[in-house]
Amino acid sequence: MSMSRSVKHSFKWVFIWMACAALTAAGIYLCIDQTYALEFVGCYLLEFSLSMDNVFVFLSIFASFGVPEPYQHRCLAYGVIGAMVLRFLFIMLGSAIVHSFAWVLYIFGFLLIYSGLKMFREHGAGKQRSPHDNPVLKVLNCFLPVTRDFVGNHFFAREHGRLMMTPLLAVLIVIESSDIMFAIDSVPAAFSVSGHMYVIYAANIFAILGLRQLFFVIEHMQNRFCFMKYGVAAILTFTGVKLALLIFDVHISIPVSIGFILAMLLLSILSSLIYTRSR
């Protein structure tokens, strides 16, 4: 399959998952509750925009470890499954905490503001942390050493009778531990749009399911999305401000949240394409 056909195929599946999410929102709107439908749309747009930032991190991880493209498919497939399980646990835990201690939302708000401003500062300074510095990988490497080279698409291999993990498993561990860090931002941000666990999780599922295909789209177009991180940082900061304003009993409506997230997402993509095209 040529590169152009591969990108077209990935584009097609990204839009298919977006269409499935739209149909789900329509079904919720018509059959269950209109407010839930708006909350689902807001959470989906939020998670989709944040997942685009995740993709850039995954690209740097694959590049750092020198993962051949055929092996990336398997790693991403397991990464998606792991993300679905981890997000469910985070959302379930977050829902229990929020419903028991409402003031936690204020803490979430200030943490999101900090994360958004930090992303602005780090992107402007061009800082990028090496995936090899991942603490989980360093600890695991003390107990189970890594083989020098990839062993096909296997996660484990034996060398001289000793069980060892391959670099592909190391990459998967880095990706999964990175997703935990993403969840620390994305799950509290979702609670700024909805307080219903199942609405948040359903939106997360659709965003995650489209993540694998989105990766291969951005992989071939990453140089065209130079302002994407600024859009994601603005969205994170906005959701933090929305939660922080609850201290003063100020509520930003769901339609306004959806409009802002969609506007930032489109603005960062279009400005990136226009800027890189002019260059």
Helix and strand element order: HHHHHEEHHHHH
Distance between the termini: 29 Å
The biggest sheet amounts to: 2 strands, antiparallel
Q: How big is the Rg?
A: 20 Å
Strand-residue proportion? under 5%
Number of helices: 10
Shape: globular
Total domains, how many? 1
Uncertain stretches:
none
Describe, in plain words, how this protein is organized in 3D.
With 279 residues, this protein is mainly alpha-helical. The chain has one domain. It has ten helices and two strands, in the order αααααββααααα. The chain has a two-stranded antiparallel ribbon. The longest helix has 32 residues. It is globular. The protein starts with a helix and ends with a helix.
Question: Any descriptors?
Answer:
10 helices; single chain; about 280 residues; mainly alpha; two-stranded antiparallel ribbon
List the helices and strands and how they pair.
Elements: H1 3-31, H2 34-65, H3 69-100, H4 104-125, H5 135-143, E1 156-159, E2 162-165, H6 167-191, H7 197-209, H8 211-221, H9 228-244, H10 254-278
Antiparallel strand pairs: 1-2
Helix pairs in contact: 1-2, 1-7, 1-8, 2-6, 2-7, 2-8, 2-9, 2-10, 3-6, 3-7, 4-6, 4-9, 6-9, 9-10
